[in-house]
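Section 4.2 – Deliverable D4.2 (structural model, holo form)

The reporting period included a commitment to supply a predicted holo structure for the target in complex with FE2/S2 (inorganic) cluster. Inputs used:
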Amino acid sequence: MTMKGLSRFVEALLSGRRPRPFPADDADAEALRVAIELRAARPGSNAPREEFITGLQRRLARDQGEPPRAPVRRFLLAGGAVGAAGAAAGVIAEHARIGARPGPGGGPLTPDLGVWHPVAAAAALPEGAVHGFAAGGVDGFVTRSGGRLRAVSGVCTHQGCRLTVHAGTRLRCPCHGALFALDGAVLQHRLKAPIPALPRLAVRQVNGMVEVYLPRG
Ligand code: FES
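Output (structure tokens):
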């Protein structure tokens, strides 16, 4: 597929329209998988229907003679909106490199190519405080409770809306009202299906600064 065609496909995907089908080679399929994950990671936007994602993956797998993959897992880490114009292959490749995987035993997400980003002065995060940050393309919250630092993604795991602090002790989704604890656990929602807890992020305090391990850049 040409770069122009790929951009058109991704633009359609980002704007929620159904892209025109085309025969995909390996490189196209990989770029499109990343585009789907980017689409799912955009805060403040409606994610594509699960059936659409699954159907697209099946078609890609069939075109390549592969068994169908499990539906895309949405980490919902990314914080900056990815504009359609920025969805050209260079941006796709950059975000493909970012990636993230849960730590051993389902611990905090660890970006593949991460660095420690300072997100707050330690003095600005006393016991019981909640501090929002945007760094490394990620929106999140750091908290200190019982002397322990925690960091979680600040993007709702339902459809990617940005969360807000509620009553100083909860994270609330303004879109459909899901409520999360500061450690990321789902406290309540009125959705038909369960939603995952917020991804946890590695956090530390060094030289008077609170740092979170996030994608580079
Ligand atoms: Fe639906 Fe958050 S986006 S509850």
